[in-house]
Write a structure and sequence with these properties.
The chain is 30% helix and 21% strand. The chain contains six helices and ten strands, in the order βββαβααβαββββαβα. Strand 2 and strand 3 (27-28) form a beta hairpin.
């Protein structure tokens, strides 16, 4: 299976100025994700999609491909991730390069266990699903079976639609949320406009590594956690 890794890194950032190449520890933020991708033995090609020449220069210095700068319509904060990935696929296919799946690696979720990219690819191949996402378990107190929504009468109803609440936490089914660090998707699903397709497999991430950087508060949390995280990756 030929898998294209795409690392999307836009230049403009409202929450953290210049965050994709801002130094975290002694490494540009995007560097963590690039280094992890380079360690993979199952990715066929690694590509950074950016609109920013400074980000491109950092990526090239790591030895990964930056074959274009994104067009303006894909460079603001309204551009969707799926359109960015579709653009990269179309660019490569126009050059005669074709792939079976895309591995989207977001620099804003920079920490992944060593070998986790190849582990995810192995699960993806085994499950034969349209996609795979990395996830973390939802804390029990926020499990959807214990979450309520207000109805039109101002009363609460269980969010899952059940009539009776599950009383014991031991009886709650596991629930997950996407941690944002990795998406694997078949090309056909991407071309149809979906990162998920009709079947979604998953792999649990290490919760001790979870950081998703959108704001300066997130950045400060990452700085505080970094010494512990570096011992795990």
């Amino acid at each position: 299976m030929k898998i294209l890794a795409i690392i999307p890194a836009r230049g403009g950032s409202k929450g953290v100025s210049g965050k994709n190449i801002k130094i975290l520890g002694d490494t540009p933020l995007i560097g963590y994700t690039i280094q992890q991708a380079l360690e993979s033995t199952l990715l066929s090609k690694i590509l950074v999609s950016t609109d920013d020449s400074s980000i491109a220069a950092v990526a090239l210095n790591y030895g990964v491909d930056v074959p274009f700068l994104r067009p303006e319509k894909l460079s603001d904060d309204t551009a969707s991730s799926i359109s960015v990935v579709q653009h990269a696929i179309a660019f490569l296919e126009a050059k005669g390069e074709f792939f079976d799946a895309v591995c989207l690696l977001q620099p804003t979720a920079p920490f992944r266990e060593r070998g986790s990219i190849d582990k995810a690819i192995a699960v993806f191949k085994e499950k034969k699903a349209d996609s795979l996402v990395t996830v973390l378990q939802v804390p029990l107190e926020y499990n959807p079976h214990w979450v309520f929504e207000a109805d039109e009468n101002g009363c609460l109803a269980i969010a899952t639609g059940e009539k009776e609440i599950i009383k014991r936490r031991q009886d709650l089914p596991k629930a997950f949320f996407r941690d944002g660090s990795l998406y694997l998707t078949k090309i056909e699903a991407i071309k149809s406009g979906s990162f998920y397709g009709s079947s979604i497999s998953y792999m649990e991430s290490n919760p001790d590594l979870y950081v998703n950087i959108d704001t300066m508060t997130d950045w400060e949390k990452a700085v505080k956690k970094l010494p512990t995280i570096l011992r795990l990756i």
